[in-house]
Amino acid sequence: xxxxxxxxxxxxxxxxxxxxxxxxxxxxxxxxxxxxxxxxxxxxxxxxxxxxxxxxxxxxxxxxxxxxxxxxxxxxxxxxxxxxxxxxxxxxxxxxxxxxxxxxxxxxxxxxxxxxxxxxxxxxxxxxxxxxxxxxxxxxxxxxxxxxxxxxxxxxxxxxxxxxxxxxx
Length: 169
Description:
The chain is 18% helix and 44% strand. It contains three helices and nine strands. Strand 7 and strand 8 (149-155) form a beta hairpin. The longest helix has 18 residues, at 20-37.
């Protein structure tokens, strides 16, 4: 696509000694040209879904696991996303304690959907007995194809009660 190179209009108009209203019009035009040609900052979001019990693991592998899904979506193509995720237990006093941290998560977008990364299989075994409520949390960076890096962080919106306890083992 043809992109014209903006030339500074103001110095030429000032030298020509034109009326003030024309100078103001030139200032507005120059601002519009500069604004259009400036690349905009990319917009990236992270979605941390609710922690849930993995039905697949329970049904096919006979394992009880807590599971978390995280996705990032940008309005420009991503190269990859790098994150750290946490499973946090909600305590009876509504405080929180970290049950598990998963670091160095790296995921790439599918070739047919370069703006979206889905991280699906973040699981933690349920070693303890009883019910517990968990929240998911994630923070990290989206690395864009043009070389820019965008920081992202997010939490699941509500805790989810599970018949599953993540122990420190």
